[in-house]
Amino acid sequence: xxxxxxxxxxxxxxxxxxxxxxxxxxxxxxxxxxxxxxxxxxxxxxxxxxxxxxxxxxxxxxxxxxxxxxxxxxxxxxxxxxxxxxxxxxxxxxxxxxxxxxxxxxxxxxxxxxxxxxxxxxxxxxxxxxxxxxxxxxxxxxxxxxxxxxxxxxxxxxxxxxxxxxxxxxxxxxxxxxxxxxxxxxxxxxxxxxxxxxxxxxxxxxxxxxxxxxxxxxxxxxxxxxxxxxxxxxxxxxxxxxxxxxxxxxxxxxxxxxxxxxxxxxxxxxxxxxxxxxxxxxxxxxxxxxxxxxxxxxxxxxxxxxxxxxxxxxxxxxxxxxxxxxxxxxxxxxxxxxxxxxxxxxxxxxxxxxxxxxxxxxxxxxxxxxxxxxxxxxxxxxxxxxxxxxxxxxxxxxxxxxxxxxxxxxxxxxxxxxxxxxxxxxxxxxxxxxxxxxxxxxxxxxxxxxxxxxxxxxxxxxxxxxxxxxxxxxxxxxxxxxxxxxxxxxxxxxxxxxxxxxxxxxxxxxxxxxxxxxxxxxxxxxxxxxxxxxxxxxxxxxxxxxxxxxxxxxxxxxxxxxxxxxxxxxxxxxxxxxxxxxxxxxxxxxxxxxxxxxxxxxxxxxxxxxxxxxxxxxxxxxxxxxxxxxxxxxxxxxxxxxxxxxxxxxxxxxxxxxxxxxxxxxxxxxxxxxxxxxxxxxxxxxxxxxxxxxxxxxxxxxxxxxxxxxxxxxxxxxxxxxxxxxxxxxxxxxxxxxxxxxxxxxxxxxxxxxxx
Length: 756
Known about the structure:
- Keywords: Calcium, Cytoplasm, Glycoprotein, Hydrolase, Lipid degradation, Lipid metabolism, Membrane, Metal-binding, Phosphoprotein, Repeat, Transducer.
- It is a single chain.
- The protein is 27% helix and 25% strand.
- The protein is an alpha+beta fold.
- The protein has an 11-stranded mixed β-sheet.
C-alpha cells in the first residue's frame, strides 16, 4: 500500500470510510461507536460519549488514536476482557486493538465475522505499511502532519502566523525576525501566504542538513556528484568498511532517486541521505540483525532474556495480574517467564504475588496464553520458572494443564537414551518449553528404573520472603509436599538450594540450578581478591544461574543486570513491566541475533581454562584494549516532552554511556542547546578507553535540560559495543518504554580502534 496513492487501495478506503463497532468494557457496558481512519492514514478517529452529572446531558467527543501506538490487532476473543464479557458464540465477530505501554486494550465487536476480518486485516496492513516506511518517508509524514495541524483554516495556504505555529509544532523556537526572513524568501508571489511550490521550497529550506552537505561535498568529486569511485572512497575511508566497487554499485542501485544519476552510476545528495537513513547507514551493524551466532552450544552458554514476576502489569503490592503481561513479555522475545502458583477457589490454581492484594489470574489461562504466544517472535526455547505454593491436588492439576495444553512443545524427558552430561542447545530445543522447578529425585532415576516415588517433601521457594515495607510477614523457609506428576516434568532446570560453589561442583548435576537474590548475587559477583567472581564464572560454565530482584523492591524497580552478565549469569530476571535504564540495557543486550532472546556468551566465559575476573583485569583473551572515539554531531526531530504546553520547546543534551566491566564504565555529556528539538547541532567529541569490548554496552540518552528540576528523558538507544558500525551513522531513538520514536534520531561519527 502506497500512501501517496491511497485511492487505489480497497482496504485503506474501507478504513477511511469507517463504520460502527460495539466497544466492550464490561458485561453491562457495550456501546456502539463510530470508528474511521483519518486522511493522514496514521490516526484512528472514534467518537466518545460523556455524560455530565449535573444535568445528565450526553455529549459526543472525538478521540484520536495514533496507529504508531498500536502494538498488535488480535482477531477473536483473545483479550482478558473479551473472554470475560462476551459469549463464545460471538468469537468470529470480536477483535482487540492492543496498545504499547500501559494503555488499556480496545475490545470491539463487528456486526459479523466478515466485517471483523476486514477491520483486522486492514488495520494490520496500515500498521505494517507505516512501520516499513523509510526514515526519510516517516520524517516527511511527520512534517506534513504538523503542517496540516498548523493550517488552522484548512485552505492549504500558510500565513506567517500559521508558519510560527507550525515551527512550534515541530519543536523549533524561532525568533520573529528569522521566521519572517524564511517566509519572505519563500513567498515569491508576495501574496502574504505560502502555497503549492512555495510550501515545498519552505520544506526544503527547513529540512536542509548542513552537516550532510559538508560530508557529501568532500567526496562528490565528479561533476558535483559522487561517482561509484567517490562513494567507494567514502565507504573505505570514512565508514571503515571492507567494501568493494560492487557494494558501492548496489547502494547506488538501491538508494539513488534520480534515474539519470543512477544510469551514470552516480549518487546525488538525496540518494546519499537516503543511504544514511537506512540500515547500511545505521549505527547497528546489519550483519548482526538476523540470527548470526552459533546456536548449537549448550543452553548454559547463552545469556537468556528473562522476566521476574511476569504476571504483573504494574507494581507488586496492588497491581493487576494478567495473561496480557505474559503476552507482552513473550512477544518482546523474553525466553524465561515466572509463574507464582497458589491454591485458588474451586480447586483451580491461580497466579499472583502472594501475601499482597495483587489480582489473581487462572494458571490454566496463563498456560494457554504461553502456548499461543511463546514462539511468535522467536523459535528458541522458553523456560517456565515455577514458584510453587500449591497443595498436592492443585499441583496435579497444574501438571495436567502443562501436559495437555502445551502438548509436544513441553519437554517431558531428556533427549537421547542415556543420562545426558550437558544441556541440549537452543537449536535442538527450538519450539520447546522447559519447566524450572523442584524435583523429587535426581534426573538419572529416569534411566535407572528408580523413578517410582509418588510424592515427597521439598523446601518451598519463596522469593518474596525477604520483602519488607509494610507487607505481611511471611514464615521462614518451610517444606511443602510435591506431586510426582509435577516433579516428573522438571528435566533440565531442577531448582536446588545454593550452598557454595564447591558444594555445587561436587554434589549437583549440570541440570541442577540455583536462584540468587540480587544482594547475594552481587556479593558473589563484585567481591574481588577472593576469586569469588572467577568461581561464579566457572560455576556458570557448567550450570545455569537465575538472579531475581529483592522482594523489598515493592515498586517493581530493577537492579543493574550488567555485573551479572559480567560473571556469566544466564537468567538475569528483570521486571519487564517497569520502564527503566536497566530495561534499556536489557533491550540493548538482546537487540542483536534476530532479537531471539539468546546471546552467546564470550568464549572466555565458556572456556574452563579461563581465569577472567571482571573486577581485577589481567592479561588474557578478554583483554582487547580499544579507544572509542565518538562525535555527537546533530539531532533530528526530537519530540516535545510536554505536548500539552503549547509553547513548550526542548533544550536537548546528549549523554553517551558505557556499561561493562568496572574499568570500562563511563559517561560523558554534551552541552544543552536552547529551544531547538528540530535540528540541534552539538559537534562535540568524546573518547573512551575500553578494556573488554565483548562485555561493553553503549547507551545514548537524550534529555531536556532543566535548571530547576531533574532533566526529562526525550529518548534513548542501547546496543552492544561490538555491534557498532564505524563512521557517520544515524542512531534511532526509543521511548522510556522501548518503542521507536518515528523520525527522531541522532547523527554521530564513531571510531572503535585498537589502542596504541
